[in-house]
Amino acid sequence: MRRMQTSDTTRMSLVPLKTAEKDPSGQARYARQFHVMAKPGGAKCNIDCQYCFYLHKEGLLHQPRQPRMDDETLEHFIQSYINSHDGNEIVFSWQGGEPTLLGIDYFRNVVALQKKYQPKGVTLHNDLQTNGIALNDAWCQFLKEHHFLVGLSIDGPREIHDKYRVTKSGKPTFDAVMRAVECLRKHDVPFNALTVVNRHNAKFPLEVYRFLTKELGATYIQFTPCVEANAFKTTAPQFWNASMLPVVGSELSKPGHPMSVVTDWSVDPDDWGNFLKGVFEEWVNHDLGRVLVNLFETAVAQTMGYPSQLCVTSEFCGKALAIEHDGSVYSCDHFVYPEYKLGNIRDHKLNHMVFSVRQEAFGMSKRDSLPDYCLSCDHLNLCWGECPKNRLIKTPEGEIGLNYLCSGLKAFYEYASPILVGIATMIQQQKR
Ligand code: SF4
Ligand code: SF4
Questions:
Q1: CA 155 and chain centroid, separation
Q2: What is the rounded distance in angstroms from the CA atom of residue 166 to the CA atom of residue 177?
Q3: How many helices (H) and strands (E) does the chain have?
Q4: Which of 113, 139, 192, 297 has the most crowded CB, counting CB atoms within 10 A?
Q5: Contact, 357 vs 19, CB < 8 A?
Q6: Of 267, 261, 266, 262, which Cα lies nearest the Cα of 244?
Q7: Which ligand is nearest to the CA of 412?
Q8: Which residues contact 369 (CB under 8 A, 6 or more apart)?
């Protein structure tokens, strides 16, 4: 089997880089910055979204029926996460599975441990990513009191949201999510909309966007394209059989074919392009500067010459890791597979895993494994081949490593680039 380049990094040993330790010079030649998505309750969830990329980890990682990061591991994680950062802002992100299943007292302990290890002059932030089902007055009071930012998963208005986001018995969840929105509003808890753009809702860009901004009142929206390799439950990214990967534009490079390279619920790449174009036009005309859309904000910043704010559109990545309930640390939230396990915080220092030769190689390969097709693309500096998890297809020349979303990304960037230049120029003039 011919494997992709990134997989080579999984065979590397865990040698810490010099920058794993705090800069001893006292002259701040480098600052250690990274992010870990914490999954203290494992993959356990109270609903059963049909497109979920994480539920199958219960089986893949042999998780117990009720996974729970124990108190000792939690304290060790919090302490070492704080100690492995330089700078005066540290963000903790709690996700799953569904983190609220652990109960409010679990997170009271989180906050108490954070206070115990919080250095002077350092601000700690908490994000909680949730489906909202369990949120009630008690939860919202807690979240407000401790300044949590909530990321609420919602895919659009009722019919669109309920297409895939259903309970374990297949019932819709829209009403429960809207009750959570009411509760968050009542307690004045800030929240962002986390919207997965899948095969269905991608066909309704304006309905989705207008619902999120007008009915939900969201002023920060994170759109994530739903892309899952058809073998995602068993095969780690980049371990695909290269000879089976289809060429861009072929039938198998799109969802819907029984032999497609992706699951049936993955967004069609061309729909992704149309979705981005439709939402971008609406955003530019009505919401520029008022609503923050993750992909557009970073495209503006990149056009102005700043680095990308998102890993997926960065030249390199590898600074967004994941920790599971048992203390296992993985290269990325989307690479929680045995092949990408760096180690366990019980056996290795967190900073030695994050700033290791192996993790550095993982991050560098985002650029170094790009096919020539991307390297000669007009939009390389905005796209950078998107996420390596999605590099499921071949270029027209048959080279591996092309992103499944390429046709949509190209269409979007071709449409948006001149407008992005106009926005960047306007912002620069306003600054003068
Ligand atoms: S692998 Fe993808 S999601 Fe993970 S850090 Fe890299 S770009 Fe981001
Ligand atoms: S638009 Fe396509 S060819 Fe261009 S950098 Fe992105 S994935 Fe590569």
A1: 15
A2: 11
A3: 14, 10
A4: 139
A5: no
A6: 261
A7: 2
A8: 4, 5, 6, 388, 391, 401
pLDDT given at position 348: 96
Q: Which residues line ligand 1 (CB under 6 A)?
A: 311-312, 317, 320, 332, 334, 366, 387-389
Length of the chain: 432
Q: Using a cut of 0.90, tell me whether the model's pTM lies above it.
A: yes
Any idea what DSSP says for residue 402? B
Give the largest CA-CA distance in the chain: 59
DSSP 219: S
H or E element at residue 35? strand 35-39
Give residue-wise pLDDT tens across range 110-161: 999 999 999 999 999 999 999 999 999 999 999 999 999 999 999 999 999 9
For the chain, the average pLDDT equals: 95
Cβ of 410 below 6 Å from ligand 2? yes
Place of tokens 């072929």: 250
Both tokens of 108, joined, read: 């009271």
* Tokens read off for 416: 């948006």
Place of tokens 């895939």: 164
Closest ligand 2 atom, residue 377 Cα = 4
pLDDT in tens, 245-278: 999 999 999 999 999 999 999 999 999 999 999 9
- Other C-beta atoms closer than 10 Å to the C-beta of 303 total 20
Asked if residue 10 has pLDDT above 50, the reply is: yes
Distance CA 205, CA 192 (A): 18
Question: What is the 405 CA–ligand 2 centroid distance (Å)?
Answer: 8
Domain positions in the chain are 34-128+323-369
**Confidence (pLDDT) at 432:** 82
pLDDT average, residue stretch 78-94: 97
Residue 384: CB partners within 8 Å, gap ≥ 6?
308, 312, 313, 314, 315, 366, 367, 370, 374
48 tagged catalytic: no
